[in-house]
Specification:
This protein is of the alpha/beta class. It has a single domain, classed as Aldolase class I (TIM Barrel, Alpha-Beta Barrel), CATH 3.20.20.70. It has twelve helices and eleven strands. The strands form three sheets. It has a six-stranded parallel β-sheet with strand order 2-5-6-7-8-9, with helices on both faces. α7 links the parallel β8 and β9. The C terminus is likely disordered. It binds iron/sulfur cluster. This is Radical SAM protein. Keywords: Iron, Iron-sulfur, Metal-binding. One of its GO terms (molecular function) is catalytic activity.
Amino acid sequence: MHYKEVKGILSPRNGMNIYRGCTHGCIYCDSRSRCYNMSHDFEDIEVKSNALILLEEALKRKRKKCMIGTGAMSDPYIHLEEQLMHTRKALEIIDKYGFGLSIQTKSNRILRDLDLLKSINEKAKCVVQMTLTTYDEGTCKIIEPNVSSTKERFEVLKVMRDNKIPTVVWLDPILPFINDTEENLRGILDYCIEAKVYGILCFNMGLTLRAGNREYFYAKLDKHFPGLKEKYHKKYGYSYEIISDNNKALMDIFKYTCKENGIVFNVNEIFKYMHTFEAKEKVEQLSFF
Ligand code: SF4
């Protein structure tokens, strides 16, 4: 772990990453890709030392409230968060200034901050995004080794449901020859139905590979799935998009099941929902008139 002072914390679309790098070890992680120009090892977490000061200044300056997003490039609940609590402190700032939050993680450490998630959601909107890729717990431990299992993430989704905090599931990525099966998909969809998720994001049944993450992914395939790297090489070469042969059949099941259960699956609609700030008090006042 090392500290670095940064110039800004919020992106033009109000996204932020408190940390850079991640210790969750997902074998397919796109954030490892060379195009992101990380100057340190991926597991050597860069802690943005002035992130909280910058966040507070930025929120104070904003004329209009909005949703603040986090978790796109680095999980906000990495191991280090247990001691540093920078994510928690960022949530306190977001709560203090009445902004909304859209937060993405694979860790049940998020439950520590349930009080803040509830508070943000009472004043504005808090959307918790969880990634679910692998129903089988043994395979999940290989693919996403250092983070909560799929079942543990399902438990988090249910806690959010019980606390009226809306959730979105990223059904992504799906790895050809590993978890691109109907059984896997139906298992995850059953979890989503029971947890009453608002929406499921799934672009297609596949993954993306490019310089940096491809090498890491192939090394892990060699270790855990002997012979599979050669199969990927033969079928996909150096393609960026790696789409499963079962894509159409699985996408049909996915869309049909979502429709049947009132789960939003239109990607644009879900992103719009996650980016739209809603002040709860205002809604109540309007309905009074
Ligand atoms: S949790 Fe996200 S950022 Fe961390 S290793 Fe997994 S995919 Fe990468």
